[in-house]
Amino acid sequence: MSKNSMKLSWLVGVSMLAALVPAHAFAQSADPVEVAAEAQDDGGEIIVTGSNICGAAPVGSPVIALTHDDISAGGAVSTSQMLQQVPQVLNIGVSETSRGQAGGSGNPTYGTSINLRGLGPYSTLTIVNGQRVVPQGTTGQAPDPSTIPTLMLKRIDVMADGASAVYGSEAIAGVVNLVLRRDLDGVEASARYGFADGYNERLIGLAAGTSWSTGQITAAIEQGYHSNLPGIDRDFYASDLRSRGGGDFRATQCAPGTLTIGGSTYAIPAGGVTQATAAQLVAGTSNRCDNAKLGDLLPEQKHNSAAFTFDQRFGSSVRLFADGFYKEREFSFTPAPLTVNLTVPSTSPSFVRPAGATGTSGTVAYSFADLLPANRVSGTSKSWNVTYGAEAELGAGFVVTLQGGYGKSIERALSTGGLDTRSAAAGGVLNTAIANGSFNPFLANPGSVASFATSVSDTRGGATLERYGAKIEGPLFELPGGTLRVAVGYERQYLESRNGTFNNVPAATGYTVALRLFKRKVDSAYAEVLLPLIGADNNIPLMQRLDINVAGRFDHYSDIGAST
Q1: Overall pTM > 0.85
Q2: Mean pLDDT across the stretch 243-247?
Q3: Are the CB atoms for 288 and 241 separated by under 8 Å?
Q4: Which tens digits make up the pLDDT trace of 206-223?
Q5: How many CA atoms within 13 Å lie on the side-chain side of 472?
Q6: What per-residue confidence (pLDDT) applies to 36?
């Protein structure tokens, strides 16, 4: 039985611009083709977001463009921070500050991806110079925009509308295109520094470029850093929101903890409790503490990145091009204190049974915040990607483009100070100590805990992307509103994603991580037609122009669905 899947997407966009304004105002509105042509770089390349037709703006889908000047004046120390200033981009899911939403579990290295309109980080396609690049994260799902040095960005295009018919199912929410510079002739340098209470950040960058009569080369390097931001340094960050009209979301995993037995909860007194003083346990009570505030809001991060572009023309009809990037990032993060729900059997010397309670065991919600050091998580993320191709003019305005690319990412997150929560039968030191009474969670001084924090969590992963394709694009004939243009093309992608996690193994015993490997091949064919039916020169009342864009895409996935 062979596995395969087919997906056919069609998108029809109709744009009609009309206004009840004086006729002379119509002349101030630029033709969409002219607007898109302003994106032409000195290297000779026109990069359009949202369309496969060179020089044509996407119909009915406005593109938000952050220019190089916007990026320089924005003060952000990464491309991700710059994009978070766009209203359509939500900082939810895969980011430095959020791992609890969709996609967060695949981001233990605290990277960032773009989430347009809150539809999920994997519904937004992030591309570089109009081309797919290798994804980051241990599950290899989404590119991190911060892989590109900010000095290397000519502009960032944000199209916050669905574009699946042009780019495939990854672009359900929209597309973000990072367009690299090809027009620098000289050297540029930048340095930024910022600080706040308990936090600081800095960025240093250098870009250089040169051009000649038939080509150019531009490159940039960047080094960035920001400190961690502890939650305790921000008064507004709290789990108890009752003073602000909200609820109390503090945890019951505290020290002293909260006992649950027979369906009732009992707050353990500050001085501890024994069976002789069990009358101090009051049913329906619980201890509350704000463990989340003791962790970091932001991890400590530092990165080194580089990127380049290259163009070379041969004669007037052939151009070779290439671009690429490399980034390595290190992070360190202090999560909330180690907490656990401890099962205390009635056979343990530590067990305390409240008056009237029944059951063979009790559960103590417990925090080691004051007993064990913070379980600091650290790791690395490395990625690189190269895109290359050739463009040739065929005559009659038609252009054929052949392009390919290859990229790889490697991710790792390591924690060596987690709780050994294995059962006593499996040799777990924590549950063994509870069973024999050497650790008593009912007391203010519970006993020695140093040997409990020996668990290792080692998460590794990454991805490899290989792709190539061909496109032919050009004009067919004239319509009243302009030239009818078409584009047809084919793409093939090979994506390998590998990931694995090894948990709850004492560091002293040694361990190995077995990575799981997932493979996918995607064959895609697409076509697009732009029909400019009415233009400003047609002098039709109340209508400036009418364009129709029809786009279709066929994607065949090798690993989804089944047929015999």
Answers
A1: no
A2: 92
A3: no
A4: 999 999 999 999 999 999
A5: 6
A6: 42
